[in-house]
Amino acid sequence: MTPPPSAVRALAVLEREVIACRRCPRLVSWRETAARHPPRRFRGQEYWARPLPAFGDPAARVLLVGLAPAAHGGNRTGRIFTGDESGNFLFRALFAAGFSNRPESIRAGDGLRLSGALVTAACRCAPPGNHPLPREFDNCRGYLVREIALLPEGAVIVALGGLAFAACLKALAENGRTLPRPRPRFAHGARYRIGKQILIGCYHPSQQNTFTGKLTQAMLRQVLRRARKEALSVTS
Question: Edge-to-edge, what's the strand order for the sheet holding 117-121?
Fold first, then answer.
């Protein structure tokens, strides 16, 4: 599907704003410190060391929302969910579900393309200990609000993990959506219709989940295929 020019322009403007963002001093310091002191396996590589914009198809009907970039993953490669095991796990599943033209994401400019999906995060900078502070989530929420506002009617949002799920609920509310009562609760595979969009919960593809078998490739692919089917059913 060809994206409307307005969506392409809006995402381009948002991308520039995200990349230039310095709202959170703690995160600015951490992402730049990580770049100056990489582990041995990444020494000599040039780090991105800036906030990460969304990556994917401007005409996406499926939005995947993670937590935050990894200090030596996306913060190094310049692309969300790229350069670490979580990203490797996710992009294998995206390829299997028909969203990606290849099963691995190496770094920005590697020729990878997504079709029908846009990948983003609740927090755009790598946080210490992989834990953004509440005010850092708040500072980033406006970007997610604007990405959700660009989604077409019937689009599906897949929240990767409980923190991303909570961030999506807040962003949907700020977009004027009325949240169901009782308030939606995160669970793997949980599905909620919220206004014009559908929100699906999915375990985050962190090593803590994938190494223990809490999240398998089959489980993640099932969620992605379900999201794709639901999103496409609106246009058929």
Answer: 55-56, 117-121, 62-66, 156-160, 197-202, 191-194
Counting every residue written for the chain, the total comes to 236
At residue 65, the 3 state secondary structure works out as strand
Hey, how many other C-beta atoms are within 10 angstroms of the C-beta on 47?
Answer: 18
Q: For residue range 149-177, what is the model confidence (pLDDT) as tens digits?
A: 999 989 999 999 999 999 999 999 999 99
Q: Which residues pair with 66 in a beta bridge?
A: 121
Stated pTM of the model: 0.96
Q: Which residues pair with 197 in a beta bridge?
A: 194
3-state secondary structure (DSSP) of residue 233: helix
Q: How far apart are CA 116 and CA 130, in angstroms?
A: 28
How far CA 137 is from CA of 106, 114, 123, 126, 208, in Å, comes to: 27, 26, 6, 12, 22
Q: If you search the block for the tokens 């949002």, which residue do you land on?
A: 157
Q: How far apart are CA 98 and CA 118, in angstroms?
A: 13
* Amino acid at site 115: S
